[in-house]
Specification:
about 400 residues, 6-stranded mixed β-sheet, Archaeosine Trna-guanine Transglycosylase, Chain: A, domain 4, Rossmann fold, binds S-adenosyl-L-homocysteine, alpha/beta, about 30% helix, 3 domains, Transcription Regulator spoIIAA
């Protein structure tokens, strides 16, 4: 656990090569191992370290972890007091969500409170589901801060927070994660329903994917609802049926939901029911999307294609692009004339332009005429730190297909 070593005379120091200091001076939150000139003191994975220039001037403070990114910076001023620092960081993230009208909003009581680098806290994700906070740590250093982080959540939310659940076992490095079990670090709670734009969703943060719900599609789901009236809709890669519920509540004629996960499909059925869909308007398919599409009739009016990240690294990017192209060409071929395609990529390494070009290639393959109606992205509770453009990951297009 944390032992209170952020002080002016901190012993654990990383010295950066002169030529490499510019990144931290411009507030980029990552120190790459190639930038390190020397490590001073007994530095171990997860330690808080201070980063200095060769001439001894202070640059930043962060968490050390051996690897290509070896320090994740969370402060560009010396940090003096442990709990007060975390209170202030979590308070800053909450102030931003209040400015967005998310915190304390009865129509949308689930949102991302901390989005890693986007909120100046690399390695830390915190999602709020009603009165429960779900924490997902992606670095050892952040996991070692769980105590102060939970304290800061309680300090900022008071009685509005009843539980803090740690769900980091799948997101930490394997060697360290073997000793980590998911569980409540404060209070206790149970999976429950949340509200999103007045729609009801069952969220199981204990056994669901990621922290339980894909909060990053909130605004894009809402937009789908705007166009769904009287339409025959396909929601592919539906997870717990987010887009399906918006389409049904907006008056879609029929919605087909597809996901390869049976557990996800069971929750989709539950969510459709919770929102009072008219009988016979929804069908569930626990299937592979490509197989489903190949067998489908070409009569959809609106389609949502929201696959998982096809590429988790640059090495996989080429194959991912081929995958997006095949999937989107097939989807386009199953739309009726005048149909709408909502298509997404959440692969960070497939940039906005590359995704766009891939969709152009898919459209060309079908020889259909296509208009671009919307460029979509991640919502404002998944902000991008202006000094860390790598934080942009979700891209989407809405296409009108003749
Ligand atoms: N659109 C969803 C989030 C999608 S996450 C929402 O709004 O909540 C991606 C989903 O794709 C996951 O639920 C995963 O189970 C599913 N999936 C992965 N591979 C698949 C495949 N080959 N066919 C269908 N679904 C798949």
């Amino acid at each position: 656990m944390f032992d209170g070593y952020y002080t002016k005379d901190m012993q654990k120091r990383i010295i950066i090569k002169n030529k490499k200091a510019a990144a931290a001076q411009r507030f980029h939150p990552w120190v790459f191992s190639g930038a390190v000139k020397a490590i001073e003191g007994p530095v171990e994975d997860g330690d808080v370290v201070e980063v200095y220039q060769e001439d001894g001037s202070y640059l930043a403070t962060g968490h050390y972890q051996d690897g290509s990114i070896c320090v994740r910076l969370f402060s560009f001023l010396p940090v003096q007091a442990e709990q007060a620092f975390w209170n202030q960081k979590i308070g800053g993230a909450l102030a931003c969500r209040k400015a967005l009208g998310l915190a304390g909003n009865p129509h949308t009581d689930c949102y991302r409170l901390v989005h890693g680098e986007g909120d100046g806290l690399p390695g830390l994700i915190i999602d709020i589901y009603g009165s429960t906070a779900v924490v997902q740590c992606h670095s050892i250093g952040m996991h070692r801060m769980l105590g102060p982080i939970a304290g800061a959540l309680r300090e900022n939310y008071g009685d509005a927070l009843v539980a803090v659940y740690d769900k980091s076992s799948e997101t930490l490095p394997a060697t360290y994660a073997s000793g980590v079990k998911n569980g409540y670090v404060f209070g206790e709670s149970a999976p429950q329903t949340v509200q999103e734009h007045g729609h009801t969703f069952w969220v199981d943060w204990e056994s669901g994917q990621k922290t339980g719900f894909f909060l990053d599609q909130r605004e894009n789901r809402w937009l789908t609802g705007q166009y769904a009236r009287d339409k025959k809709v396909l929601n592919a890669f539906c997870y717990t049926g987010g887009f399906s519920v918006y389409a049904l509540k907006a008056g879609a004629r029929q919605v087909d939901s597809v996901d390869v996960s049976r557990t996800a499909m069971a929750v989709t059925d539950r969510n459709v029911e919770l929102n009072g869909a008219a009988p016979g308007t929804h069908q569930s398919f626990a299937e592979d999307t490509m197989a489903f599409l190949k067998a489908a009739d070409a009569d959809y009016d609106l389609m949502v294609i929201d696959p998982p990240a096809f590429a988790k690294s640059i090495k996989k990017r080429h194959n991912a692009v081929q995958g997006y192209k095949r999937l989107n060409a097939l989807a386009l071929s199953k739309l009726r004339a005048g149909g709408l395609l909502f298509t997404f990529s959440c692969s960070q390494v497939v940039g906005r332009q590359l995704f766009y070009d891939t969709i152009v290639a898919a459209a060309l393959e079908t020889r259909r005429q296509v208009r671009v109606l919307h460029h979509l992205s991640q919502p404002p509770d998944h902000p991008v730190n202006i000094y860390h453009p790598e934080g942009e990951y979700l891209k989407g297009l809405v296409l009108y297909v003749e």
